[in-house]
Amino acid sequence: MEKRPCEHPEPSIGMELSATHKRLHDCLRKAGEHVGLSQSYRGIMFHLGHEDGLTQLELAKRTNVSPPTVSVTLQKMERAGLLERRPDENDQRSIRVYLTEEGHALNDRIHSEFYKVDMQLVEGFSEEEKQMIRRIFAKMNQNLEGMNL
What we know:
The chain is mainly α. It contains six helices and three strands; from the N terminus they run H-H-E-H-H-E-E-H-H. The protein has one domain: Winged helix-like DNA-binding domain superfamily/Winged helix DNA-binding domain (Arc Repressor Mutant, subunit A).
């Protein structure tokens, strides 16, 4: 079999970004496990920690997870004592999801662990470089938003 010369000797930006994402994902998974947080709970905890009282559908959209999967995860988290569901005060058909005291405590612990990972990720970067990275990622996300594959 003949070996073809590589047209692009350097890895693509997408490949580099993918490798960094995988390493970051592994670090966040380990940090979560360190404080007893299941990986499947991470996105829900993050969003409820920032805005308690979201609906199941809002959580599904924000975590980019299907509503049935979010429903199962919420049931598990409720059984674990991390959250509770309550009817919306203005619309009895809607159910709002809230972290319990135990859920808030776990969220505080995981936030602290994730902060350590985030600080390690940008170790040695200036504030200007960090802002540039944020702008670059925002632009990349915007560029990919309209792709139909």
